[in-house]
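Q: Is it fine to ask for two folds in a single conversation?
A: Yes, each is treated on its own. Send the first.
Q: Here.
A: Result:
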Amino acid sequence: MVRSLIRGPSLKHMFSRISSVASSTVALAACGTGSPMPEVDMVDCAIGTGADYSKECVLEKLGPRQFVIHGPNGGFRRFEVQQNDQGVSVISIDGAAPVAVISDDSPLEFAVEDDVYRVDPALITAPQYE
């Protein structure tokens, strides 16, 4: 038999050790300082028909005009801010249903399907990258 002629650890044992070292290296690389933590803020939302507002949604800035709102159920929606003579408006950029602006005052209130969000306009219009 071939196995009886080979001395030392089995191939299965060697691959297990290599796999362990590789996963440790990936984990350490993920902890590096290469990527800064995204800027996030908690915002009011009412997710689903008849839901009450709660400050459970997380707003994450993607750039000067784009942001994501993460819901408490793990879902998220991507938006883009547009400013014109009438003020601030929000459009969906993830292919979801259109955005209905309920109030363009402060806080800005808008809905996509059955999800409603209240966001301080300063959170989405203030320049983040200069």
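Q: Second one now.
A: Result:
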Amino acid sequence: MTFLMTLVYLSVSSLFLVSCEDDENDNSSEVVLLSFGPSPTYRGEELRFIGRNLDKVTSIILPGEMEITDIEQVSVREIKIVTPQDAQEGYVKLVYPDGELSTKTLLAFHDPIEIDEVSPNPVKGGQTLTITGQYLNFVHDVIFADRDTVSSEDFLSVESGKIELVFPKVALSGIVKFVNNSYVRVELESKDVLEAILPSVDEVAIQDKKNPGDVITVEGHNLDLVESVILPTGESVDFTATTDLITFTLPEGFTDGEVKMVSFSGIEEGLVYVKLDQGDVEETAIMEETRDLGTWTGEADGGAFRLYKSSFQDVSVGAILKFYFTIDDGGWGQLQINHANWGQIAFFESGDNTIKSYELELTSDILNTILTTNDGWSDTGVIVQGQDIIVSKVTIIQ
């Protein structure tokens, strides 16, 4: 994985930062610090201190109680040290026999963090992600897809050349950012995407002739990354999951439809299509002639056809009126079901020519409308019209 570095400077640095007081009382024996720097600087570089009577300084204490006694004495007005590779940011103390003094500004560092590799890629939520490179002990946050952050206190391990952390189950595929813990903010942004593994099934299979209380088992991949299972009604259902199996029980009141799974990262996918056992179902054809509905051309030109009341006389409430058809290639299929006086009962439309049928539940209101609406001259119960659809058959299922 390759990385681009973005430096975000939070303050303006200069060679020296005024730290204590004005250059007065030059003849005093008091140890005075006037300035130090550069800050920000790089670890391993020289850090200079300017002041008065600095030859009295015996040690310099860096943040984290890191004591430096190897001090280069340039003159009574200047001393130098080399900042260690593990030096931290913060205030610096100068220690001398009669006391100590502290800088009034922070010592800050440029962090030359480098990333060599992030593995594995793709990675699964809950899996250990390993990052190798240089100066990684100065990484404070790892951000996935600009959304989910793992901070240094949650790293499994960290050293200069390697970070190990748990890839969050909630994280998405995307760019990875590495942010340092320095006064000067540094971000390394990945050029390549880190792919997050998602739960999946090979296909959304149909399981039919099921009843409430039946146990549904679905095979798939990485199903332990599923956070919730959603029924066709939008309600969730309790489930158990392993890497390759999900199991749940159909609740009372379940209706036919697609059951979906939602990953911890919030991605929703189809899981299984469940059909209830309908018992002894009879399907009766009430029209088996090809009717090309064209483009709303009207009944006289073949753009509509009729179904008669006699076909609905012994039909029970809850029966299905089913239309079999094909949608014209490139067309937008529309099917309108009207009562005898051309008032709309139901409407279907789609541009998906893989759809081959439409089912209308005959509720008590719809059946009553079909059987009691009269045009005054015929036994018409239903008038069907539309466009870009060729109807080949109409049946009643009950």
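Q: Anything structural to flag on that second result?
A: Two points. Residues 243 and 279 are 35 Å apart (CA to CA). Helices lie at 364-372.
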